[in-house]
Design a protein that fits this description.
Elements lengths: L1 H38 L4 E5 L12 H4 L2 E7 L4 E3 L2 E2 L5 E2 L6 E2 L3 E9 L3 E11 L3 E4 L3 E16 L2 E3 L3 E3 L1 H4 L7 E5 L2 E2 L3 H12 L5 E7 L2 E7 L2 E3 L4 E3 L2 E16 L5 E4 L15 E15 L7 E7 L6 E2 L2 E3 L2 E5 L13 E2 L9 E8 L5 E11 L9 E5 L2 H7 L3 E2 L5 E4 L2 E10 L2 E9 H7 L11
Parallel strand pairs: 1-8, 22-30
Antiparallel strand pairs: 2-5, 2-7, 3-4, 3-6, 7-8, 9-19, 9-26, 10-13, 10-19, 10-21, 11-12, 13-14, 13-15, 15-16, 17-18, 19-20, 20-25, 21-22, 21-23, 24-25, 27-28, 27-31, 28-29, 29-33, 31-32, 32-33
């Protein structure tokens, strides 16, 4: 009997030990799973002087207590309750560290203080203040070369419909840069050049750009019985235009950002490679309200002679250039601070946009979700809850892209997309994505 009792006692302890080990393994697995899903890409973070270092705020309390943050370099850049951290190289769970000067901070996260999870570099920037936009703008641009937007048949006398360019592997979305080494910049120039060359050349050498590749193609033009001319069988376009919204500009450098997303060709969905472009003032005549399954649209006209900036870059998170003159903003007369992604909180915010005429107004929104891992401009899920805006537009409409998002008086992002089946909701991009593309963050001095 005593032996049996001792055996049961040992078995009970083994179960407790086994349960403890399994619990630890589950906690490790859960921590890693949560970490991979929510925090994997944050190898680099941005903060402004005076902001809190909130590395683990997105984690549940249980996980926060088993992850230790060690400071590799940069203790002098932090303060906790007014005292520096020079005497220790780690951050406690109950610390609220504040960055106090520009520089670079290197951190390492360890599970239970033993298992390395992640190394994180934090760039601490001087306080950056920008003017928020909200103004409706007309966007006019010419592409680099002439873009192929479709193929058309060339009716030959003997063989019927032919497709010379398609047979030469010239595809929709390709940019025609030159014909027989003669550069082409407009569709009219291409048409004129073809008229001259096709009458005496049996084949043409086209230089095209496809993505990042530059290719040479040989095309055999055919005489078209319908048009009485030699043709390649192409539809082309050399320009684009539309209405969007100005997001911000830097009062010092006059660099601006707008749209919140890349400009693509409406027919090919390919990125437009800009040769030259400009932004003008736009007057919103009316708004076609959005409804489920059918996005709405701002209907506006460009104001003649109102050009106030050029377009230099067309990138993933917007278009960028330099202002020749600064537009007036009835809502903000001074530049406001920028808030980077880790300081943004779900909840109330506002957008600036134009619904009628040229007047910029504020409208309330709610940030429902933050999506740090997205690289497609869908970093925030937002919902319009302003009754006036909903009454006038039905929600987010085309032409509203680029409308600045402001939270607690700081610029945090811009509207980018609408949910097609729920126009009250859409996406926003973090402002830091736009600032990096505009090279405004690279221009900030960072102490070593």
């Amino acid at each position: 009997m005593p032996e049996s009792g001792g055996y049961k006692l040992i078995k009970g302890k083994q179960r407790q030990i086994l349960g403890f080990i399994l619990g630890c393994l589950f906690l490790i697995f859960f921590t890693f799973s949560y970490y991979q899903d929510n925090y994997l890409i944050h190898e680099r973070q941005l903060l402004s002087v005076g902001e809190s270092l909130t590395i683990l705020n997105d984690f549940p309390p249980t996980i926060r207590k088993v992850i230790n943050i060690y400071i590799a370099t940069g203790q002098k850049l932090l303060t906790v309750k007014g005292q520096d951290l020079l005497e220790r190289n780690f951050i406690r769970d109950d610390d609220d560290p504040i960055v106090i000067e520009p520089g670079q901070l290197s951190l390492e996260l360890k599970l239970f203080g033993l298992i390395p999870l992640k190394k994180i570099n934090v760039d601490i920037l001087p306080n950056l203040h920008l003017m928020p936009g909200g103004h409706s703008i007309g966007v006019l641009l010419r592409t680099e070369g002439v873009m192929v937007v479709g193929h058309s048949p060339v009716i030959h006398r003997q063989i019927g419909a032919t497709f010379p360019a398609r047979d030469a592997d010239i595809r929709v979305g390709d940019l025609i840069l030159s014909v027989n080494d003669v550069q082409v910049a407009t569709d009219q120039q291409l048409s004129s050049l073809l008229s001259k060359l096709c009458s005496r050349e049996s084949k043409l050498f086209l230089t095209i750009k496809r993505g990042e590749q530059t290719l040479k193609k040989v095309v055999y033009p055919q005489y078209c019985m319908e048009t009485k001319s030699y043709r390649l069988g192409l539809f082309v376009r050399d320009n684009a235009g539309g209405v969007g919204t100005l997001t911000f500009w830097d009062p010092t450098t006059k660099i601006y950002g707008a749209l919140g997303h890349m400009i693509t060709d409406s027919e090919t969905n390919q990125k437009l490679h800009i040769r030259q472009g400009k932004i003008l003032k736009a007057h919103i005549e009316n708004v076609q309200k959005g409804r489920r399954g059918q996005p709405g649209e701002k209907v506006g006209v460009f104001l003649k002679g109102s050009e106030f900036g050029n377009i230099e870059e067309n990138k993933q998170s917007g278009i960028y250039g330099t202002l020749q003159s600064e537009p007036k903003n009835s809502q903000y007369q001074k530049a406001i601070p920028v808030l980077f992604s880790k300081q943004i909180q779900p909840g109330k915010a506002e957008i600036l946009t134009v619904v009628r005429g040229q007047e910029v107004k504020k409208y309330e929104i709610v940030i429902e979700k933050l999506q740090y891992g997205r690289t497609d401009g869908k970093n925030m899920v937002i919902r319009i809850n302003d009754s006036q805006l909903l009454n006038e537009t039905g929600g987010i409409v085309q032409g509203m892209s680029g409308s600045p998002i402001i939270q607690n008086g700081s610029l945090i992002g811009a509207i980018t997309h609408v949910f097609v089946n729920d126009p009250q909701r859409g996406y926003g991009v973090f402002i830091e994505k736009m600032l990096l593309e505009a090279n405004l963050l690279e221009n900030q001095e960072i102490a070593s």
